[in-house]
Write a structure and sequence with these properties.
Elements (H helix, E strand, L loop, with lengths): L1 H16 L7 H28 L3 H40 L12 H24 L4 H27 L3 H26 L5
Helix pairs in contact: 2-3, 2-4, 2-5, 2-6, 3-4, 4-5, 5-6
Main location: membrane
Subcellular location: Vacuole membrane
InterPro entries: Ccc1_fam (IPR008217)
Length: about 200
């Protein structure tokens, strides 16, 4: 009997100290993807514009417009997505037990605001990197270096919060970001050629 009680207490302690990292999935997905999207899409947009317009104002304004548009898009997209999930869960609870535990349901506004803020945080990195560098080639290098560092940090942070392998996560985020910037720069440069 004493052994049974001791084993039960150990099981309860184990359950209380074991954290289910999959429960972080919703807010972690919104935060990490939002920041990564803000970083990659804004940097890619700035690189694309920078491929044909070498002045700092054009790069900065395009990046700023991309940040505002992207944050609004993330807000609306996340709000609609989570509100749809909210409606489905509410309908299922009403059909089921009849008891609705509203505090367990996701908040559409919270998710939308978190996504918009995360996107903006990511977008600020290339904007700040480009804002104070007048010379074109140096500006492009500074943006690429700043975005590279941020991509590695975002990948590592996502892995740390989700208890996933840090190297794989960082490498995946880094190469994806580089590819997006390279494709945008290359295609825009091609379209901007005088003969086309």
């Amino acid at each position: 009997m004493g052994r049974l009680a001791r084993n039960t207490n150990m099981d309860i302690e184990k359950e209380s100290t074991t954290f289910d990292y999959s429960k972080r999935a919703q807010w972690l997905r919104a935060a990490v993807l939002g920041a990564n999207d803000g970083l990659v899409s804004t940097a890619s947009l700035m690189m694309g514009v920078g491929a044909v317009k070498h002045d700092v104002k054009a790069m900065f304004i395009s990046g700023f417009a991309g940040m505002v548009a992207g944050a609004c898009s993330m807000f609306i997209g996340e709000f609609v997505s989570v509100y749809s999930q909210y409606d489905i869960e509410m309908a299922q609870m009403e059909r089921g037990s009849g008891e609705i535990e509203k505090e367990k349901l996701p908040s559409p506004i919270q998710a939308a605001v978190a996504s918009a803020i995360a996107f903006s945080v990511g977008a600020v990195v290339p904007l700040l990197a480009a804002a104070f560098v007048k010379e074109y080639r140096l500006r492009v290098i500074v943006v690429v270096v700043a975005v590279t560092v941020a991509l590695v940090v975002f990948g590592w942070l996502g892995a740390l919060l989700g208890k996933a392998p840090a190297l794989k996560s960082s490498a995946r985020v880094l190469f994806g970001g580089w590819l997006a910037m390279a494709v945008t720069f290359g295609l825009t440069k091609l379209i901007g050629l005088p003969g086309l």
